[in-house]
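Re: weekly structure request thread

Next one in the queue (344 aa):
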Amino acid sequence: MNDKKLDYRSAGVDIQAGEEAVDSIRHLAKSTYNSNVLSDLGSFGALFGFNKESYADPVLVASTDGVGTKLRVAIMAERYDTVGQDLVNHCVNDILVQGAEPLFFLDYIGLGRMDPRIVHQIISGMAKACRENGCALIGGEMAEMPGFYQSGDFDLVGTIVGVVDKANLLPAARIKKGDILAGIPSTGLQTNGYSLARKIVFEHMGLGVNDVVPQLGATVADLLLSVHGSYLPLLRPMLRDRRLHGLAHITGGGIPGNLKRIIPEGLCAYVSYADHEIPPLFRLLQEGGNLDREAMLETFNLGIGMIAVIDPAFASEFMSATQALVIGEIEECRTPEDKVVFID
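Done, posted below.
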């Protein structure tokens, strides 16, 4: 019989390291607070109050998402701050498509081993994105789970809550034949397609995370860890404009998989997006993986991070403000085919 005394640390969970991690991030979370935050970090539940009088008929909009296997690239590069920004911005964009502006954000970090240094970098990225989006980071959970996550591995998930007046909910019933599809540029792969991208870059092309890609003038880490941008700063001034009819965040499933979610019955989106408009990073992945066009379309955003459906009379003003491209229009469906059709 083994008489050695056991404790939580001997089982792989370091309570003291967890407390150090919380202490190290407390000031980061507080840097995102506003007068609506009514609790401190470390409470059993986070408290947030907002002035309902500012809204005629407020609707809360909530979303939960993760960063996916982009985390593997961050671990390989030992660069952890950008994935925190990715997580917040992705969630902000997901509620933005319904016309909502963020109120507060909560995160979950699951780790194989508690490392306060890594946690600090992750949360610093989250706090930066929360400040930029006017969103309070009011709480979350850090779970050290040895035997479930491998040492050095971690998972990252976030939940966001925002608000929109019911009259301004998107997509609107105003989407109609003749509306313009405006594609706002992405900042790279964003947070989708990384399982395929990693297979192409690291296995098929034989590149390392710190290798320079000469034709793109950047390292693999720089290219694959470019921050998923938030479209809120660009679109916030237009959310109450009746000429904005709908928004689609281009994530997993690419342009066809996401745009079809907002197209009304009886209408189709006809997209004309030429190959020469696709950024070089995506062409590199297509050539490196010998991918056909269908695989590219269903996996990657191809340089378009958000698509706005707008009234034609709004086109000039919208394009000027967002640097968007006209990539198609809404029409009556010509045949009983997919809701999103790519045309030459």
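The longest strand covers residues 154-165. The mean pLDDT is 92.
Next request, please.
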